[in-house]
Each structure stands twice: as structure tokens, then as C-alpha cells.
Design a protein that fits this description.
single chain; alpha+beta; 5-stranded mixed beta sheet; 4-stranded mixed beta sheet; 12 helices; 15 strands
Length: 378
């Protein structure tokens, strides 16, 4: 029933065009088991989607609600065994469409079997719709439908088997490109294309290929090239996981003073890669700032490395976001030496490092940084 609620609420959230509806009187009455003492009625305003709540006492297993509404409303009844039950969501509930005029609900056999059994013309039309819907649904339970469904399932399994056989005989088109690139790399280790192909292979999710062995097989000339060195650093950075030592580096701050990561030895430090033009980074900054304000006096520091090209944009973002921690950048954008050393391929990215220089967590988002700091700085 929850799914129905969500869908229906969406209907009432749509803006209404044309003249306003006129509120009309409704009367909702029904029967329930005698153990229920109070009933809550919740329904949504047809025009504004505002929530309306009402309650009534059950007398001798019967209840009545009276009120007004515009158009049809999605409504729910919550059944309370005692008036002291304050958590409405813990009560049995029954949801339906409520129209102007009279609507009669029968839940005397239990809330789970509750249903609308009568009412005025608008409710009668709703009942006719529900009854037709139930009749139409029966076709999916018929033996004819089930037989056709079984035929489709048999055909699906046959098709799946044929597809598997086809792959076993001819392979997969995507594997063809992948495997031929690997063959090229092995056959021509000094060809510059081998380095490009290895970058492609390394970017695929395939644990069966020893990427580092392919790289080791390249010529020294290719490995010493700019792209070759960058790819080598990427493999090196794969060891940057919790429990391993962070790589040290030095970069200038806004005044040109060199700051090293190792300068923060003895503190918990967040190494944060970001940029002024990175919207997700800017959106994440308030979370980082919240953690900084809470834990800075408890042996926590931040070293932010910007992948900016323009110093003015970098400093403007620091001022706008009110970021009081240490900031460095060589202003080389994606070619930033520290980001290359850490093989950063997307930002924001971060590493939380302990006082001994070991990584204890990475890529903390939202409240994760604050929660991790609360854990280690307790």
C-alpha cells in the first residue's frame, strides 16, 4: 500500500489549472472490530496537497466522519486500540479514494480485509472501477495465460542457451578488441600505440589480466615518456589503501611557501583534492568545514590540493567557501604533481592519514569524515 501512497501523492502535487473547485460535504462511516477505540482520518487537499487530520471515537464497532473536500482525495484510516497510542504509523491502516457525499467502509472482519461497500454516486462509480479492475486482473490467473507464459519462459531459456553457445563458439565482440590490444602490446612493446592500448586495458574491469606485467614488458623508452611515467605512477598509487603509508610531496601555498605532507606528522590530516571549478567539491566543502570546526582542536588538520590553473579563481573559492585550513597548488590543473602522484582521476578525492603517516580511510563523503574522526579521536 505504501507504493500506492507515493504514486497518488504525486498526482495531487500537480498544479491545478482552471477555475477553483467548490468544497463539498462528505460523510464517511463504517464498521470495525470492537477492540478498536479510536480512528484517525488523514486525507490530502485536492488543490494544495495539504494534510488534513481528524479523529473520532468508535462506538459499538461503528464510526462516522463528516467534513468537506474539493474533488477526490486520497485518504487513510488509522485504527487505534487505545487513545494512548501516539505513533500513528504503528497502527493498522486502510487507504482508499474519498469522494464527496457518503462513503461506507466495512472493516468488521479485520483491517486487512477492509473495503468500501457502498455510498453515493461518486463512490459507486469508484466501486465499479475497483470491481472491474479485479475482474480484469483475473485473466492473469487463467490457465490459458499461464500456458502462454510458460511458452515464453521456454523460449527465453532456449534463447539464452543459444546465446551462450554463440559466445562459446565465436567469443564476444568487446573481448575481440580487448584481446587484440593485449596481443599488440606483447608483440610490439616499443610501439607508442602499445602505451595507449595499455591505458585502455588498464581502465577496464578485468581481473584476469596482469596489467603490471604488461607495463613491465614495455620498452624503457615508453616507460620513461611522460605518459609512461604517469601510467607507472598510477600503478604505484594502487597501493594507497588503508594501512599503507601515504606518499610525501611538497607544493607551494598562495604565498609561494612550500608545504610538505610530512609537515603534519603527529596529527590526523585529511589530504583533500579539489578545485574551484568542481561543483561536487564545492558542495562537499560544508561537510568538510563542519568536521574541521569540530575536530581541529583535537589534533586534526587539513591539507587541500587544488587542481586549478588560475590562482585568482583558486583563492576566490577559498574565500567564498570560508575554508580556514592549509591550501597548496602548483596551478597545473589535472597535471598537478601531487594529484599525478596519487593517480587522481576524479575529484573530490581525499585520504585520511594518521599521525604516523598511514592511510586510515579514503574518499569520505557527507557525514563519513565526521563519523570517522569521532571514531579515531574519541
Amino acid at each position: 500500500m505504501n507504493k500506492i501512497k507515493i504514486l497518488c501523492l504525486g498526482l495531487f502535487a500537480l498544479p491545478l489549472m482552471g477555475s477553483a473547485q467548490t468544497a463539498k460535504f462528505f460523510q464517511l462511516e463504517g464498521t470495525v472490530p470492537r477492540e478498536f477505540k479510536e480512528i484517525i482520518l488523514l486525507y490530502y487537499d485536492y488543490n494544495t496537497d495539504d494534510t488534513h487530520l481528524d479523529s473520532t471515537i468508535v462506538e459499538d464497532g461503528k464510526f462516522v466522519f463528516k467534513g468537506s473536500l474539493e474533488g477526490a482525495a486520497y485518504a487513510g484510516l488509522y485504527f487505534k486500540e487505545t487513545s494512548e497510542q501516539h505513533n500513528r504509523n504503528a497502527c493498522p491502516e486502510f487507504w482508499f479514494y474519498l469522494n464527496a457525499g457518503k462513503t461506507i467502509v466495512d472493516a468488521s472482519g479485520g483491517v486487512e480485509r477492509g473495503k468500501i461497500v457502498g455510498g453515493d454516486i461518486l463512490t459507486q462509480q469508484y466501486l465499479a472501477y475497483e470491481e472491474k479492475l479485479e475482474r480484469d486482473k483475473n485473466v492473469f490467473e487463467s490457465s490459458t495465460y499461464q500456458k502462454e507464459l510458460q511458452k515464453m519462459e521456454t523460449l527465453r531459456l532456449e534463447l539464452l542457451k543459444a546465446e551462450t553457445n554463440l559466445k562459446q563458439i565465436y567469443g564476444v565482440r568487446e573481448d575481440l578488441f580487448f584481446n587484440n590490444k593485449i596481443s599488440f602490446i606483447k608483440q610490439y612493446p616499443d610501439n607508442p600505440l602499445s602505451l595507449l592500448y595499455l591505458e585502455y586495458v588498464a581502465g577496464q574491469d578485468n581481473n584476469e589480466v596482469d596489467i603490471k606485467a604488461l607495463y613491465a614488458g614495455l620498452s624503457d623508452e615508453l616507460k620513461k615518456s611522460v605518459r609512461g611515467q604517469k601510467l607507472g605512477l598510477r600503478f604505484q598509487a594502487e597501493i594507497l589503501v588503508p594501512g599503507e603509508n601515504a606518499f610525501d610531496f611538497a607544493q607551494p601555498d598562495a604565498n609561494g611557501k612550500l608545504i610538505k605532507l610530512s609537515d603534519f606528522r603527529g596529527k590526523y590530516v585529511l589530504l583533500d583534492f579539489w578545485a574551484s571549478w568542481c561543483v561536487p567539491c564545492r558542495n562537499e566543502n560544508p561537510n568538510v568545514l563542519k568536521a574541521y570546526d569540530r575536530f581541529h582542536d583535537k589534533n586534526f588538520e587539513i591539507l587541500a590540493v587544488s587542481l586549478d590553473n588560475e590562482k585568482e579563481n583558486w583563492l576566490k573559492a577559498i574565500e567564498e567557501d570560508k575554508l580556514p585550513w592549509y591550501h597548496v597548488s602548483d596551478l597545473k590543473g589535472w597535471q598537478n604533481a601531487a594529484s599525478t602522484l596519487y593517480a587522481i582521476r576524479g575529484i573530490p578525492a581525499n585520504y585520511l592519514i594518521d599521525p604516523q603517516g598511514k592511510i586510515i580511510a579514503q574518499n569520505l563523503r557527507g557525514n563519513e569524515l565526521e563519523e570517522k574522526l569521532a571514531e579515531v579521536l574519541k
